[in-house]
Amino acid sequence: MSIYNYEVKKPNGETVSLSDYKGKVLLIVNTASRCGFTPQFQDLQKLYEKYHEHGFEILGFPCNQFGGQEPGSSQDAVAFCQRNYGVTFPIFAKIEVNGDNAHPLFQYLKKEAPFKGFDETSANGKILKLMIMEKNPEWLVGDEIKWNFTKFLIDRNGKVVRRYEPIEEPIDFEQDVAALVNA
């Protein structure tokens, strides 16, 4: 089993097979337009521009499960990303990443790259954990996605290599992307 076994929808409802991305390094991200982590779009776009021609893709999946921070339509999410951050990587239809209605792709990603804890040596790690404890304590248990901008790095064979939590900025793991792209 790999990510190539899954299908996702574009904002217009068209189905896309992730097998279309075979042979590429992928970064799969659950996103939101009104989140404190939303400025990560800027560095995600920079990563995309730097490595895209070398077989790197970023796939964004808007999600409204965390603080209601993606309240509009899928089309609204795409327009926001393009208008405010110049995003040119694909943004797909809104999905759920946790709970009974979690998209099968994210169920798979969570199983393949379990949650390893918060970096509580950083202020952002402590703040995020406290915020989740207050708003969605059920997500602190197990491998659930903890918040917007959880990122999964996938190798050219469709294998999940690593999970990055929301506080991990794209600049922090650029070397991991470069290593896979150049492998």
TrEMBL record:
Is Hydrolase a UniProt keyword of this protein?
A: no
Cite the Thioredoxin domain residue spans from the record: 1-183
GO terms classed as biological process: cellular response to oxidative stress
Q: Which InterPro entries match?
A: Glutathione_peroxidase, GPX_AS, GPX_CS, Thioredoxin-like_sf, Thioredoxin_domain
GO MF terms held by the record: peroxidase activity
Q: Report keywords, A-Z.
A: Oxidoreductase, Peroxidase
Q: Which Pfam families match?
A: GSHPx (PF00255)
Q: Where is the active site?
A: C35
The answer to keyword Zinc applying to this record is no
Highest taxon of the lineage: Bacteria
Task: Name the family the entry cites.
Answer: Belongs to the glutathione peroxidase family.
Under what name is this protein listed? Answer: Glutathione peroxidase
